[in-house]
Structure formats: C-alpha cells, structure tokens
Design brief:
It holds the Pfam family CDC24_OB2. By secondary structure, the chain is α+β, with helices and mostly antiparallel strands. The protein contains 15 helices and 31 strands. The strands form five sheets. It has a 15-stranded mixed sheet that branches. A five-stranded mixed beta barrel has the order 20-21-22-24-23. It has a five-stranded mixed β-barrel with strand order 26-28-29-31-30.
C-alpha cells in the first residue's frame, strides 16, 4: 500500500514545503539567536498536513492541483505552530505585546476544546455560545459617562484585541483594594455574544457570567489569595444548617472527573452535568451545572485545581443525583471560580526508525542507516501521551497503550455493525452505538471502537477501503492487545474514506494510473485504472434497495432497521441502486487483460449513466440496447480487493472466515474518461 500510494508522497512533499517556507520566514525575522533556534526545531504535524489536504480535497470534489493544496496550507500555515496571524482588527501596542509575552512565558498551557482566537472572531464577525476564549486582560477602564467596566482582551495567538463588557457579578474583583481582575490577569470565557453597533469602531463582547480566573502559585499575589481565602474550608465542614444560615464557604479541590451531559424533566428540556471535585482530605463532592451553566465545564480541565468562592450549597435530592450524595455544590449568582490549570509535563518520546520506515513501512534492508527522531510530547492528566503535534506518520506497529490524538492511514480488513434492534423503543435506547473496524497497514493491525454521537455518520465504509482516521486513543484490550477508541464528539476526530474521495479520480496529482496486469489481490492499495467496459448482459445488472446512510443492501425489504448501522429503513433512507458485475479491459494495453469487478452505489450509477428507477421503467428491449451501447466506454475507476457485507463479531486467529474467502475486486469510484481534461 505504502510504496505506490501517491497521496502519502503528496503529504510528505507538502510537509517539506511548509517546513522550508517556515525556515525562510525565520531567516527574515530579527530575533534573538536562542529563540530563533527553538522555533526552527518546529515541524508541521503529519496528521495536521493530512487533515488540511483532505479538507481541501473535500471542498473541491471536481479536482485540485498541487498549487491549490499548497496555497491552502500556507494560508492556514500557523495552525501547526503558535504564532501571530495578520488580522484586520485593532492592533495591539508594543506595551500590550509585552504583557502577553510575559504571560506566555509564565505558563505554557494547552489549548482547550472549542477554543477560538480573537483574530477569528473579527474575521468571521461571529462567536458561538459554546466557544472558549483564553485571554489576557490588557487594560480595565470605565465606559465614559457610565458605571460599566470594560476589559480590553488579547491572546497570544492573535495580533488584534477585543473589548468585553464585564458582568456586574465580577465588579467586586476590580475594586482598588481587591484588584484580582487587573492588567496581566489571564481568564477564560464562555457563553459570549458579539455586539456590533454603528457607533463602535470594533465589535465588543457582551457580558457573560461564565468567567474563570486563572491563578499561578508561583506569583506572590495568587499564593497569598489561595492561602488567605481557600485553605480553611473543606468539604467535611459543610453542614446544611450552616449553609441555610447564609454562611459563605470557599473551597479548594482537584477536578477529578467530568460527567456526561444528561437531559431530564418531563419534556426532556433540562440539561445538567456533574463535575466531581476532591479536596486535600480525599473527600469528594459533586458540582452540578444546569443548562447554560454547562459552558463552565469547557473552561476547566480534568486534573486541574479549582477554587470555588461562595458556591450555592444544596441537597443531593434537590439536584436529582442518583449517586446518593447528601450535599452538592452549584454555581450560584455570587459564585466566583478560579483554577490552577493542569500543565501537562513533557515526556521525551524516541523513535529509532529509518526515513523509509516512517513513510513507507518496515524496512527490508536491515543495513540501512538509522534515522533517530526524539520529540518532546506532552502527557495529559490521565497519563496518555498526546501525539497531536507529532511530526511524523505513525504506523500501527508503533502503537502502544495510553496514546491520544493518534492519526492512522490504513485499510479496513473487517467491519462490525451495531447490535440488531427490533423495535422503535430499542432503537431509541441505542441512540449512541458502538461499531468496530479492524485496520491494517504493513506493520500490523489494530481493532478500533467507533463511538458516534447518534447514528453512523461515516458514510459507506467497506472491507478493503483505505481510510484516514484521527483523534484515536489507545488502550489495552481484554486479550492484552492494543486497541483504539474513537469518539465522534471529540473536536479533532475525523474519518475520511480515501477510496471513495471524489477528488481522487478528478485530480491527476492525487493518483497514478495502474495497468490491470499489475493488480494483485494481496495488495491493500486502492488502485486507479483506466479501463474499457466489457459487454453487459441482463444477468450482469441488478437493481437493489440499500441504506443511504451506510450503503448496505437490505436483506429483508420489510425490515424496520438497517442490519449494519441500525438506522431506520423508511422511504428517506431506503434508496434504489445498481449492482453490476462488470468486465474491465485495460485501455492502454493490447494484451487483452481483463478483470471482473463488482460495482454498486454511486460508482455504478456513473458507469450506467442512468437513474436506477428510470432504468427499471424501460422495456426489456430498450434496457438491452442501452447496456449494449455502454460497451467499450472508457472510465477512470478505483479498484480495491474487498467485500460489501456486515458482520457481528471480529474474526479470531485461525482459518480465514468464509466471508473473506468470497472477497473480489470492487469499484470504489468511477468517472467518465476525458481524453482532453482541464489541466489540473
């Protein structure tokens, strides 16, 4: 798969171009020698380059050129490194830049999920309620003629600033004698809304009560604040009668775990989330967030220390807790939250690989010189090593337990559908289903559990397809082997089917033409071939009903749900499609090499150049004449060795399962061959 894969070579060439461009830009900058050397060590992540290329290919299904792909990479080139972007909003002065630089040196914090930058807000002129801002206060001032405070905010990723109307619940934190919200203070915001008005030069953020203040124990003022206010109360001190007497508490605890967001109430309209906090004595209490307050959860990370000032104290019964906790905490109208973020410690991860092994699989020549790569990677609060910024491609043979944000480029050797459901009630209960894929590359295989938000949304994925999967976390399975887990809800989760990517056929830069004589059933590559259609008879063309969501054919026409993905089989989901048994001849060879391949779905519709429902309405004589007219038509097709079926379990070691013994050549995509295409 690896040596002949044009897309893999394109990713490596794009990474090299990005790195060269970055080094040229560094040579033009006038910075200190030490800082310049540190920045030169940065390399674009292989997974990030691959994601950007595939996103561009998806945006231009009619075809892309290397110039288009590289242009898109350079436009978003700062995505793989921390750097300033040129924005069209208010610029920050040199003094404000100094404040941000000092804050950046104090603590290097990882970016949170759903985090947006100030530059992106100005560019889109929009900010969603679930977006997270991690910003530094650059100045605090009173709006002229009013008693309203405004904060000027900046972040280390943007070259512009933005103003925020401060919520009145935080006014006591900017008083002269209690100046916690001051210049240089770092805060996190959620639930923001943007306000633009004719009298404003730049839009401002409206007040939000979802604000968390970041503290640093190494700063004297912050250490004194923690010692004076948050070290006296513990969870064991809480008594309901004291809480009802309006006695104020201040707690300091570690965020142990975030629970799932659940929906309650008679009409399923009340959302709540439970965050488990653990104090220094080992006692735990739940912090319950309701509806819009759930945004606060995105401002806190597991493993971080949280300081709660004046939380609302309620009984577990009032909060509807099933755990039996007698007391719980809530985010009240006068509650202030502080956090000491968990800073992941760097761990040196070393890989002793040749460059050939990194790009193309295990080396055959053991005498090759060894390419040593030593990369500093962060470890999260759960002990997993974060490979999000790993510069090289990870192969399945490199996988170890407790790895996160792993990206794999591999082919599917097995697919297991969701458990069968028999009724609408069971269908509702299985709204969050788990699927299994077995992925393989030249270094080995791994079983991956796919968790979708609701239903299967990965499209048509069959055995033999080549896919790109990112956002993977590795664990140890029941049999001691390394397994993968993939959650669709993760912000960096992505699953792309390379075999059925429309731009693969329409972009010469993404493929090379394989002669049919070079095809091998032992190869796991998706081959692009230029072929002629052989004779099609009535026995070679069928029209079947399949599920639009996953592409599986219906075994029973009166079935209520799909046998693979469990989705409903109603009129919107059940679609007619062709199923063809085609004979292909090589357009460029005279040897008469032929390949028999099965074709279904959109690829079959491209070859038939007709709609299945229209074809069925024609008389048999007209159908036969039409099929005869397709003979010797030329197409570009993607061929893979696989099958289209669903399974209930993953295969164990031993003889090859019967289904895999029935594998055949199949068509992943087809496009009418144009001898004079538009130059791409």
């Amino acid at each position: 798969m690896e040596v002949d894969d044009v897309f893999i070579r394109l990713v490596e060439e794009a990474r090299a171009s990005l790195l060269l461009h970055h080094q040229q830009q560094l040579q033009l900058q006038q910075e200190k020698k030490r800082k310049q050397q540190q920045q030169q060590q940065q390399e674009p992540s292989w997974a990030w380059v691959c994601m950007r290329l595939l996103s561009c290919c998806s945006a231009y299904p009619s075809g892309v050129t290397p110039a288009i792909l590289l242009s898109d990479l350079f436009q978003v080139g700062n995505g793989w490194k921390t750097g300033d972007k040129n924005g069209g909003a208010a610029r920050r002065s040199s003094s404000l830049t100094t404040v941000l630089d000092q804050q950046q040196k104090q603590q290097q914090l990882p970016r949170l999920p759903n985090m947006v930058t100030i530059d992106s807000i100005h560019e889109k002129k929009f900010v969603s309620l679930d977006s997270v801002l991690q910003v530094v206060i650059l100045s605090v001032y009173l709006l002229p003629g009013t008693s309203s405070y405004v904060l000027t905010l900046g972040d280390t990723w943007s070259s512009s600033t933005i103003d925020l109307y401060l919520h009145r619940k935080f006014y006591d934190l900017i008083e002269p004698n209690n100046a916690i919200l001051k210049t240089g203070r770092e805060i996190r915001l959620a639930g923001c809304r943007l306000r633009s008005a004719p009298g404003l030069a730049q839009p401002r953020l409206l007040p939000t009560e979802f604000l968390v203040i970041l503290l640093d124990e190494e700063q004297e003022d912050d250490a004194m604040l923690l010692g004076a206010k948050f070290c006296s109360d513990t969870f064991a001190n809480i008594q309901l009668d004291l809480a009802e007497s309006n006695l104020e508490f201040c707690f300091y605890a570690r965020l142990d775990r975030k629970g799932e967001v659940t929906v309650e109430g008679q009409h399923n309209h009340v959302k709540h989330q439970v965050i488990t906090l653990c104090d220094d004595n080992g006692d735990s209490l739940p912090l319950v967030l309701w509806d819009d307050q759930i945004s606060i959860s995105s401002l806190l990370s597991e493993g971080s220390m949280v300081a709660l000032e004046r939380p609302f104290i309620a009984t577990g019964w009032d909060c509807g807790l099933q755990s039996g906790a007698p007391i719980c905490l809530q985010y009240g109208s006068v509650t202030h939250l502080y956090t000491l973020p968990y800073v992941p410690r760097e761990e040196q991860v070393s890989y002793c690989l040749t460059y050939i092994e990194i790009c193309c699989g295990p080396r055959e020549d053991k005498n090759q010189s060894v390419f040593m790569s030593q990369v500093m990677l962060p470890r999260d609060s759960q002990g997993s090593v974060d490979f999000n910024n790993f510069p090289y491609r990870l192969l399945i043979g490199h996988l170890q337990p407790r790895m996160s944000h792993v990206a794999l480029y591999a082919h599917v050797t097995w697919a297991v559908g969701a458990p069968a459901v028999k009724s609408n009630e069971e269908q509702k209960e299985h709204s969050n289903q788990t699927f299994f894929l077995r992925l393989q590359d030249p270094t080995g295989f791994v079983d991956v559990k796919l968790h979708f938000n609701e239903r299967w949304s990965a499209g048509k994925v069959f055995v033999g397809h080549v896919i790109f999967l990112t956002g993977l976390t590795t664990i140890v399975g029941g049999d001691g082997r390394v397994e993968g887990q993939w959650l669709e809800k993760d912000t960096e989760a992505m699953l792309v089917n390379i075999t059925q990517l429309p731009a693969l056929l329409s972009s010469p830069s993404l493929h090379q033409i394989f002669p049919l004589s070079s095809l091998s059933s032992t190869s796991s590559t998706t081959h692009v071939c230029r072929v002629r259609i052989g004779k099609l008879g009535p026995e070679d063309v069928q029209v079947r009903t399949s599920h639009a969501r996953c592409g599986r054919a219906f075994r029973q026409l009166n079935s209520l749900v799909c046998s693979f993905c469990g989705g409903p089989c109603d009129d919107r989901e059940a679609v007619p499609e062709f199923m063809l048994r085609t004979v292909f001849y090589d357009s460029a060879e005279d040897a008469g090499v032929e390949v028999v391949a099965w074709c279904a779905g959109q690829a079959a519709a491209e070859i038939m150049q007709a709609c299945p429902s229209d074809f069925c309405s024609w008389p048999e004589e007209e159908q036969a004449m039409y099929m005869y007219s397709l003979e010797n038509e030329e197409f570009l097709v993607t061929l893979y060795w696989g099958l289209e079926d669903d399974h209930r379990t993953l295969p164990l070691a031993g003889p090859l399962p019967l289904e895999l013994q029935l594998m055949a050549w199949r068509v992943g995509g087809a496009q009418k061959y144009d001898p004079h295409p538009f130059p791409l």
